[in-house]
Give the backbone structure.
Amino acid sequence: MIGRLRGILVSKQPPALLIEVAGVGYEVEAPMSTIYDLPVPGKEVILLIHHAVKEDSVSLYGFLRESERVLFRSLLKVSGIGAKIALSVLSAVSTDQFTRLVHAGDVVALTKIPGIGKKTAERIVVELRDRLDGVSSLPGASMQAPGAALDAAGEATVALQQLGYKPVEVSRLVQKVAAEGDSAEAIIRKALRAALGS
């Protein structure tokens, strides 16, 4: 099983990354929380990997922080949640935020995450409430300044997807317009202007 990759970032087209390690290109999917913090292509990166093997496919999922990999793996154990929704969760909220929502039983807030309906949110609360206690204490679980920017970008990403924009388009727009210290509202306004070409 692959648990970690260290190599050159060849390309990033959210959610897909291409990492070259010793001449081999690995296709890796990653949440926006990881993608926002990656360097430009051509630079070295180190990613923690979740290696998923199914009957008809092998997939790699990459994370910069152990807390995110742990949360991703916890989400996969919830009935009805696959890798796509787990990545969506990590793209929309920080691990700390998600842990707080689950402990508070905030089903309404959880349903604002793309791909999570009321029944899935209720299952998440029931199945994960006792499993997430250690996530907040893992390295990288709570970030200060970068976390604030990431949260705003995550909120903007969710809002734009709810307006009907495709995830790949939203990722590109948010990455293009988001500046450090921007509020979610500011990012949304700038993204909409960019989308409309004004």
Summary: Residues 138-150 have pLDDT under 50 and may be disordered. The radius of gyration is 16 Å. Residues 78-137 form a domain with the DNA polymerase; domain 1 fold (CATH 1.10.150.20).
